[in-house]
Write a structure and sequence with these properties.
The protein has 136 residues and is an all-alpha fold. The protein is built from two helices and no strands.
Length: 136
């Protein structure tokens, strides 16, 4: 949870407590009661509001913690998936490179063989021409 939303939650809880306390005190002051009864009612309401505020804060902290944990789990899953995909891409790239090297080697060997054949044919043609010239 970000700092601004955390500050908002704290501000909301504080505002709720203060507003509730002000409302309770106003209601108690306007009610016709003795001083002792009034003080007891104010103490009871204050205690009740404090308990509610504590519960709200605990719930907010638990919700924030759960949200953070869910975010971490999702982030870890994304990282794991990305790593798996990258490994697959590397394996495919290595296979393509191996295939390309093999094809290049075969092409080179075929080309060398054809060059040798052309050389042998040229040599044989030159010898035949020489023999024909010498034979005449």
């Amino acid at each position: 949870m970000s700092d601004s939303s955390n500050s908002f939650s704290k501000g909301f809880i504080i505002g709720t407590v203060i507003g509730g306390l002000a409302g309770a005190i106003t209601a108690l002051l306007l009610a016709p009661k003795t001083g002792a009864e009034l003080r007891k009612d104010i103490a009871d309401k204050s205690s009740e509001l404090y308990d509610k505020a504590t519960d709200m804060l605990a719930n907010t902290q638990e919700t924030a913690s759960n949200t953070i944990n869910e975010g971490r789990i999702r982030a870890q899953k994304i990282v794991t998936d990305a790593r798996r995909q990258a490994e697959g891409l590397l394996a495919n790239a290595e296979q393509v490179l191996t295939d390309a090297r093999s094809k290049a080697k075969n092409f080179k060997e075929n080309l060398q063989s054809k060059v040798e054949t052309v050389k042998d044919a040229a040599k044989a043609g030159a010898e035949a021409f020489k023999n024909e010239i010498d034979g005449k």
